[in-house]
Amino acid sequence: MTDGDRGPDVAVTDAPSPKGAPTTARGVRTRAALVAAARTVFERDGFLASRLTDITAEASCSTGTFYTYFVSKEEIFLAVMEAAKDEMLHPGVPHVEASDDPVSVIEASNRGYFEAYARNAKLMMLQEQVATIDADFRQRRLERGEAFARRNAKAISRMQDDGLVDAALDPIMTSRALSGMVGRLAYSSFALGMQWSVDDLVETSTRLWANALGLRYRDDA
Amino acid sequence: MTDGDRGPDVAVTDAPSPKGAPTTARGVRTRAALVAAARTVFERDGFLASRLTDITAEASCSTGTFYTYFVSKEEIFLAVMEAAKDEMLHPGVPHVEASDDPVSVIEASNRGYFEAYARNAKLMMLQEQVATIDADFRQRRLERGEAFARRNAKAISRMQDDGLVDAALDPIMTSRALSGMVGRLAYSSFALGMQWSVDDLVETSTRLWANALGLRYRDDA
Amino acid sequence: MTDGDRGPDVAVTDAPSPKGAPTTARGVRTRAALVAAARTVFERDGFLASRLTDITAEASCSTGTFYTYFVSKEEIFLAVMEAAKDEMLHPGVPHVEASDDPVSVIEASNRGYFEAYARNAKLMMLQEQVATIDADFRQRRLERGEAFARRNAKAISRMQDDGLVDAALDPIMTSRALSGMVGRLAYSSFALGMQWSVDDLVETSTRLWANALGLRYRDDA
Amino acid sequence: MTDGDRGPDVAVTDAPSPKGAPTTARGVRTRAALVAAARTVFERDGFLASRLTDITAEASCSTGTFYTYFVSKEEIFLAVMEAAKDEMLHPGVPHVEASDDPVSVIEASNRGYFEAYARNAKLMMLQEQVATIDADFRQRRLERGEAFARRNAKAISRMQDDGLVDAALDPIMTSRALSGMVGRLAYSSFALGMQWSVDDLVETSTRLWANALGLRYRDDA
DNA sequence: TATGAATGAGCATTCATTCAT
DNA sequence: GATGAATGAATGCTCATTCAT
C-alpha cells in the first residue's frame, strides 16, 4: 500500500550502492541504462516475474554487466526507486506548517500526493509488492514513514495547542491513520483501478481529514 | 494492509475446490492435514518462500498426495483462507445498522476488527503478500471489499438523510476511505509491529471515524 | 601424501548421508548408479574438473536426481570413498600385534598396503587432491590417521618394553613418521609414476622400518 | 606431502616468464607488487579460491594490468614460488657431503628443513594444493625431486661402500623414502597442525634416519 | 488413495579474458 | 603501460509436477 505509512508526501531511500559508483563516463551510462531498463521491466512484469536477463536484454548489455553495478534484483530495485524519487516529489508537497488556512495546506498536500501517485502508479504498486516480499525494504519504508509521521504529528500537536484541532486525538496515531487513509485511497484508485477522479479524491479526502481533526472546512459557512 | 479495502469485517472466498472434495474419511483427514500444514508453513515462511514439499512434509504425507487435493500453491492458499474464515469473523462484528447510537456501533465494529486482526496477524500479512502477487486473488478481494463498502455506504447515506452525517461526503468513497484507514492502522500495528494497544486503536480510530463523518462522539458533552 | 598419515592400513569414513537413504529399491539402485558414475568420472577427470552433470549423464539420470541423494560434489565424493572402503581394506592388513616375528608382521602389513594402493591408485590420488581442497575432508582424514597412529604407537611401546625396539624413540612420532614414509613411497610409486615393483617396495620399506625401530631384520644372520 | 619427494632441501622452478620481463622501472615495480599481492592472496585463500581480481585489488592495480605481466593464475603462482625460493633455502641446508660425522650432517640438514618449513608453512601447503591440481607443476616438482634424490642416493652409496650404511638398501629408493618421511612429518606438523616442537622433530627424524641407514647415532655410547 | 523417485526447464551467478580509451 | 568496463560461456541448483508402483 503506498509508501510505508506516509500517504501524502514521498521520500525515498538514498542508500549508496554497495558496488561503488562507476568511475568512467561509459560506466555511468551503462548503469543508468540498467536502471532505466529495470524500471521498464519491473513495471511491465512485476518485481517477481522480472528476470535479471530481461533487464540486461532491455539494457542491451550482457548478464555479467549487471553484476558490475548491482548485487541483486533487490538492489537495482532500490536504485530504480532512488532514481524516481525526484520525479515523485516534484509536485511540491508543502509540509503542514503555519499558514493562513490549514485546510488549504492539507488540500494542496493531498492533491500533490494524488497527482504524483497517478503519474507513478505502476511504481507505487511495485513498492507494495516488494514491501510484502522483502523485509529489509519493508523496514526501510517503515522508518521513512516514521519520520514523516512525526513531522505531521508535531503539526497536529501545534494545532491542538491553538485550539484548532480536537484535543482528544493522539497526534502520532492520528497522523498515521490519516496518512494511511489517503495512501489507501490512492492505492485503490490508481493501483486497483477504482475509477475516481483526482478532484473527487482530493475533495473527499481533504474533507474527511479536516472533519476528523475537527478543523472547519473551507467552503462551509 | 487488510483485505482489499474492507477494513473492519472480513469475508473470504468460497470458491469450490476444482478437485472435488474427498469422498472417503481418510481423504477428508488428509486434506485437512494439508490445509493445516499449509497454514503453519505459510505463516512461518511466507507464501513465496513456502515450497510444496515443506507443506507435505509438515502434513506428513508424500509429495504426490498434494496433487490429489490441490492444483497449485495458490489453490491451497485459498483453502487455508476459507478454513480461517470463521475464525476471523468470529468476534462478532455487527454491521452498521439501525441502533440507538451510531458511534457505539462503529466502536464495537472497530474493536471486533482489531481483535480479529491481532489474533490472525500472520494470516493478514499473508493476504497482503498474495494480493500483490496474484491478480486473481487481488480481484477476488476487491470484489468482496466492494460488497462490504456498498453496505457501509448505504448506512452512511441513511445517516446523511437523517441529518446525522456531513451531507457533503460521497458515501461510497467515504466508506472506502474510513475502512481503509482502520485497515491500515491494524496493519501498521500488528503486521509492522507498531506497539499500540487495542484500546488505543479503537479509541482513536472510532473518534476519527466519528469526527470525519460529523457524528457527535459519545463521551463529549 | 596418501591417506591422512596412515600409511599402511586403511580406514574410511562411515558418515551417513545427510539426505536420508533411499526407501525404495529403485532409489537404492539410482543412488548406487550415481556413486559408481561419480567414481568413474572422478577417476577420469579429477575431482575439480568433474561437473555434476557429467556424473548424472554417466549415471543416466537427470540433474535433479543428483540432489535427491547428495547435497554437493564433496558429499558424493565421501560416498564414493565409503563404497570403496571394503575394497581398499580387503587385502587383509593385520594389525601389528603379538606374533612370532614382528618384522614379518610389518612386512605383511606393508605388502597389503602397497597392493591395495596399486589397485586403487586413482582413488588415492583423488583423496590427496580433495584433502588439499577441502578442509573438512582433511580434518576427517587427520582424525582417522590419529586413531591408527595411536594403535601403532602402542605396539611400538610394547616392543620397547620388551627390549625389541630402540627405547629412545617417541612412539607416536615414530609411528607417524614410518607410516608417512610408506604412504609417501606408495604415492610416488603409483600416483606419480615412479616405476617400482611391489616386491621392491615391500622389501625396502620393511627393511627401513625394521632398521629404524632397531628390530633385527629377518634374513640377516 | 611436502614438495614432490624432496623432503629436506628446497628448489624451485626457474622457468622464465613467457611475457618478457618488464623494461621500465615502473613495470618492475608493478610486477613485483603483483607477485607480492599474489602471495598474500594465495596464502590467505588458497590457490583455487583466489581470483585474479583479488590479486589485482591487493596490488592496487587494474584487472587489465595483470595480463601485461602474466598469462594465467598458474603463471603468477610460479612467479610467487620463484620469488620465495631464496627465502625458503636460506637456512643453509648443507648437502650430505664428506664430513666428520654423517649423523651430524643429517641432523643439520633436517633442522634446516624443519625451520624453513615452519617459516613457510602456508606456501608449502599451497605447493601441495597446486601439485594435486596442476599436472605441469607436479611434473616440474617431480623432476626437481629426482635430482635431489640422486644426489642423496650417491651419498648413501658412498657410505655403503665405506661400510657405514646397510648395504642391503637400494640407495635411490631409500633416499626417496627417508626424504619422504621427513617431508611428511613437516607437513603433519606445520600444515595439519600437529603440535610438535622443531627440536623433537629433528631429534626423532634424525634418529630414525640414522637407524634406518644403520648409522651409529651420535649420542649412543 | 498414497507414495516418493525422477524429471528438467529455468534462472542466477561467477570470473577469466578482452579491448577501447 | 595502465585502466576498468564489458563480455558471455559455463555451471550449479531449485522445485513444481508427473507417474509407475
UniProtKB/TrEMBL annotation, chains A, B, C, D:
Start and end residues of each HTH tetR-type domain: 28-88
InterPro entries reported for this sequence: Homeodomain-like_sf, HTH-type_TetR-like_transc_reg, HTH_TetR, Tet_transcr_reg_TetR-rel_C_sf
Keyword Transcription regulation: yes
PROSITE patterns per UniProt: HTH_TETR_2 (PS50977)
Residue ranges for the DNA-binding region feature of this UniProt entry: 51-70
Protein name, as recorded: TetR/AcrR family transcriptional regulator
Gene Ontology terms for molecular function: DNA-binding transcription factor activity; transcription cis-regulatory region binding
Disordered, as annotated region: 1-26
Keywords noted in UniProt: DNA-binding, Transcription, Transcription regulation
UniProt cross-references to Pfam families, sorted A to Z: TetR_N
Sections of the chain in a coiled coil: none
